[in-house]
Design brief:
The chain has 131 residues and is mainly α. The chain is built from six helices and three strands, in the order αααβββααα. The protein is globular.
């Protein structure tokens, strides 16, 4: 357990030194999602933005059956179609953006913004890998 915590601290410091601020936190979140640590990724993003973390569930509610993911503000929950989406940073971060906007009372008309947030986060991760 101690080794895991030390590794987590080292990884976090390394990433945040390579890409400070919001970009570093988002790059770290992408890394965690790719490793299957999606709940940890959402937790560090939520702490960074000072908001409560959403719940994450695999399996979509009926109203979202054709989507890869869906955020339901009433339940503060990100629903993902399958375990494949659980490890897909674009889908998870797209839905996290909806959560972030919803917490701030601005949930409507944000698909373009959610796509940009997710794509930029992945770009930050690639910069971290190359740097």
């Amino acid at each position: 357990m101690l080794y895991t915590m030390q590794l987590l601290v080292f990884t976090t410091v390394f990433v945040l030194e390579a890409l400070p601020g919001d970009a570093g936190v988002r790059a770290l979140a992408v890394k965690y999602i790719l490793e299957g640590r999606t709940e940890e990724a959402v937790l560090i993003l939520s702490k960074h933005y000072g908001i409560p973390a959403p719940k994450i569930r695999v399996g979509l509610p009926k109203k979202c059956k054709s989507a890869y993911g869906c955020y339901v503000a009433k339940h503060r929950t990100i629903y993902l179609r399958s375990s494949d989406e659980y490890m897909n940073p674009f889908v998870v971060l797209h839905e996290f953006y909806h959560h972030l906007r919803s917490i701030h009372g601005k949930h409507r008309g944000t698909e373009k913004g959610a796509n940009k947030y997710a794509a930029d986060s992945i770009k930050f991760y690639r910069v971290m890998l190359s740097g």
